[in-house]
Amino acid sequence: MDKNGMHDRLRWGLLLFLTPVFLWLVLLIVLPQIDLLIMSFRVESGYGDSSWSLYNYRQFFEEPIYWLTFVRTAVYSVLVTFLTFVVALPVAFYITKVVHPRFQGFLTVLLLLPFWVSELVRVYGWMILLRESGVINHFLLRMGLLQQPVEMLYQDATMIMGLVYTSMLFMVVPLISALESLDNSLIEAAYDLGANMGSILYKIIIPHATPGIVSGSIVVFMLTLGNYLTPNLMGGKNSLWFTEQIYNQFIASFNWNQGSAFGFLLLFLSSVIVWLGLKLTRQNLRKVVQ
Amino acid sequence: MMQIDLSVQHVLKRFGDFTAVNDISFDVESGRFFSILGPSGCGKTTLLRMIAGLAELDSGRIEIRGKDMAGISPNRRPVNLIFQNLALFPMMDVGANIAFGLQRRGESKSGIREKVSAILDRVDLAGFESKRIDQLSGGQKQRVAIARCLVLEPAVLLLDEPLGALDLKLREQMKVELKKLQAKVGTTFVYITHDQSEALVMSDYVAVMNHGEFEQIDTPQNLYSRPQTPFVAQFVGDNNAWSGTIRNCEGTVGEIETDDGFHFRSELHQPLPVGAAVDLFLRPESMLIQPDPSLPDLNRFEVVVRSTLFDGANSRLLVHPVNAETELLVALPQTHQYDYIQKDDTIEIGWATPSGICFPK
Ligand SMILES: Nc1ncnc2c1ncn2[C@@H]1O[C@H](COP(=O)(O)OP(=O)(O)OP(=O)(O)O)[C@@H](O)[C@H]1O
Ligand SMILES: [Mg+2]
């Protein structure tokens, strides 16, 4: 068999192998997205026919309730990302540097365990703990610390706590892998040269872990921004998350055009925020992905 | 009487049942180059880390310039440690690495800049401030690590085998440079190594360490010519070893019968009773090839040449006694006087009584 023939066979084999993947990508992801994109630029007139328009996008900027919800969602997502980082860093540091290597695997598995059940179950778990007739209120009343049960659910603080809890894993895992590559002797050298815990953190640990911090933050930010369950179930009735606006458009108002416009706005604006964040902290994505 | 910069008293450190550092005491005078020499795993790093404050002592006391260091954290001790792997900060350039300690002390920006450039000058790296760490060669990293500590003007600089990672040629060169640098800055150095030539070349005093204990603290010359224990005799420099029995003893000179049947007269480390089992050590250069028959009082015996180990000024003959299998190394001076010696030749060897180093078993 000549070389050319073999080449051809290889190429056909590759094509055969890639076709299902390609079809899956096109049919299930690209086509629906294109359809939604087209839909977002059209408006229905009252009589069932539709025309091209930027109306759906204008609507977002002209109705304060929409863009205010988005700003609120974005600000809270940044806050959640930051809080998740603050909580995750000591955890990752403890697992990689303090605990005996023998227990590292065990602790990591322990950390993963809650994520084996679905988010819905986890959120309901929190609700059982926190609601007015819940476990925590019960104990506080029993111990006499409270005279009357307190509603801990449906508040922004509770919702943020829930979101941080949900996002923990996505911050801890990249931080663990970033800190694992940090040579202990660098920390000791800094200590020996006169640094205290604060300056070791700012000068050695955070600069070293930056790629992990950035990739963790991007994932957590995007997931939080796009989260629906936790804000919906734990947040208050008047604390709308932007995903709930999208849901409302699709399901409550049957306005698919408006809904898809919001969807693309969410995608675009969150990308802009991530890009801004990278610029502000002088990171570039290539270094992070490495 | 010189000032004592570092005083270590009865320091002991255990890891579980294992005693890594066992009741060690020593003093280092100001401005000295003090080395701790010992085989891998004998506890050198552990001892140094305790001095730096990075490890706790189980008992004992460490004083620096007369001040007890108990309870003082590493960032407040007037000592700095150069790590076995140097531990330069890869996230900073050379200038920032060196400025790190000064910034922690809150010194002024302009003061820091001056000191950094002065110390870089000192280690022959003038103008290297903005280089990244991964742009440096092994020897340059070495000097940055030293500069980063010296700029803080520590009372004692601790060095943990800093030349270990370098190739042979560079190591030879850095040995001399390090010694010169120490003489220039006058800082007290405590240097640990498992390489006896590093310790002998650079140090004012060397402590030989084995299994967590010091065997001998002495000048390099004394360690070599008057080892106090069998371990030191074998670890410092090359030595030929025989085991034997004392047949006669007058003062500190004894007549020894070796296990392979030779009778030698040798200096003893201490007077010994007849019949005591001993180890006899003999330096390769103590053995004379074909000694002049007129020389009196030499232990003489015949050996067969196995091979010539040529190594420039450090060339040796590998020989064995005529009727025995013991392998011996004999120094072969490169004066062309012995060029006639061939493999399988039988030659006479002689050594003088005072060259023998003899310990009871
Ligand atoms: N944290 C620790 N836990 C248990 N054992 C340890 C610990 N650190 C060191 N040891 C043991 O103590 C002994 C001395 O170790 P140390 O690192 O001081 O040796 P060293 O003389 O510096 O050796 P090298 O020349 O190889 O660096 C070794 O047997 C080592 O296994
Ligand atoms: Mg060591």
List keywords for this structure.
heterodimer; A: 290 residues; mainly alpha; MetI-like fold; 2% strand; B: 361 residues; alpha+beta; Rossmann fold; OB fold (Dihydrolipoamide Acetyltransferase, E2P); 2 domains; 5-stranded antiparallel beta sheet; 23% helix; binds adenosine-5'-triphosphate; binds magnesium ion
Short recap of the structure:
The complex is a heterodimer of chains A (290) and B (361). With 290 residues, chain A is mostly helical.
What does this structure look like?
- The complex is a heterodimer of chains A (290) and B (361).
- Chain A is mostly helical.
- Chain A has a single domain, classed as Orthogonal Bundle (MetI-like fold), CATH 1.10.3720.
- Chain A contains 13 helices and two strands.
- A two-stranded antiparallel ribbon of chain A has the order 1-2.
- In chain A, a hairpin with a 5-residue loop joins strand 1 (42-44) and strand 2 (50-52).
- In chain A, helix 2 packs across helix 12 (256-280), helix 3 (64-98) packs across helix 9 and helix 11 (242-252) runs antiparallel to helix 12.
- In chain A, 28% of the residues are buried.
- Chain B has two domains: 4-234, P-loop containing nucleotide triphosphate hydrolases (Rossmann fold, 3-Layer(aba) Sandwich); 238-360, OB fold (Dihydrolipoamide Acetyltransferase, E2P) (Beta Barrel).
- In chain B, strand 9 (205-210) and strand 10 (213-218) form a beta hairpin.
- The mean pLDDT of chain B is 92.
- Chain B is α+β, with helices and mostly antiparallel strands and 361 residues long.
- Magnesium ion (MG) binds at residues 44-45, 84, 160 of chain B.
- Magnesium ion binds next to helix 1 of chain B.
Looking across the biggest beta sheet of chain B, what order are the strands in? Answer: 6-7-8-3-9-10
Identify the CATH class of the largest domain in chain B. Answer: Alpha Beta
List low-pLDDT spans of chain A: none
CATH homologous superfamily label of chain A: MetI-like
Number of helices of chain A: 13
- Total number of helical segments of chain B? 8
Structural class of chain B: alpha+beta
- Tell me, briefly, the overall form of chain B: elongated
End-to-end C-alpha gap of chain B? 38 Å
Strand proportion of chain B, as a percent range, falls in 35-45%
Annotated CATH homologous superfamily of the largest domain in chain B: P-loop containing nucleotide triphosphate hydrolases
Determine the fraction of residues in helical runs of chain B and give it as a percent range. 10-25%
Instruction: Name the largest protein-protein interface in this structure.
Output: A-B, 17 and 23 residues
Domains counted in the coordinates of chain A: how many?
1
* Average residue-wise pLDDT of chain A: 88
Please, what is the oligomeric state?
heterodimer
Rg estimate of chain B, integer Å = 25 Å
CATH architecture term of chain A: Orthogonal Bundle
Alpha-carbon distance between the termini of chain A? 42 Å
